[in-house]
Amino acid sequence: MASSANSFTGMKVFSTTLARDREQMGEKITAWIKDNPNLEIVDRQVTQSSDKEFHCLTISLFYRQK
């Protein structure tokens, strides 16, 4: 749970199971951050999961208004 110093008002989740989308995830996240200059990222969480066939990468960004 976020501390009061890192309190957040929203979150944005980026997730994919496709290898080509995982390769482009950084560019998508960077573009979203640039498109939302009024938001301050206060925390992030990276989660990876997999089964026999699929590998899922999820990056969650926690933000608040500047």
Low-confidence stretches: none
Number of helices: 1
Order of helices and strands: EHEE
Distance between the termini: 21 Å
CATH architect. name: 3-Layer(bab) Sandwich
Number of strands: 3
What top-tier CATH class fits best?
Answer: Alpha Beta
- Any idea what the radius of gyration is? 13 Å
Strand fraction: over 45%
Biggest sheet overview? 3 strands, antiparallel
Given helix and strand content, the structural type is alpha+beta
Task: Give the CATH superfamily.
Answer: Archease domain
Which fold does the CATH topology refer to?
A: Archease, Possible Chaperone, Chain: A, domain 1
Query: Total domains, how many?
Result: 1
- Read across the widest sheet, the strand sequence of neighbours is 1-3-2
Name its key features.
alpha+beta; Archease, Possible Chaperone, Chain: A, domain 1; three-stranded antiparallel sheet; 45% strand; elongated
Task: Please tell me about this protein's structure.
With 66 residues, this protein is an alpha+beta fold. It has one domain: Archease, Possible Chaperone, Chain: A, domain 1. Helix content is 26%, strand content 45%. It has one helix at 19-35, and strands at 10-16, 39-50, 55-65. The chain has a three-stranded antiparallel β-sheet with strand order 1-3-2, covered by helices on one side. A hairpin with a 4-residue loop joins strand 2 and strand 3 (55-65). The chain is elongated, with a radius of gyration of 13 Å. The relative contact order is 0.34. The model has no long low-confidence stretch (mean pLDDT 91).
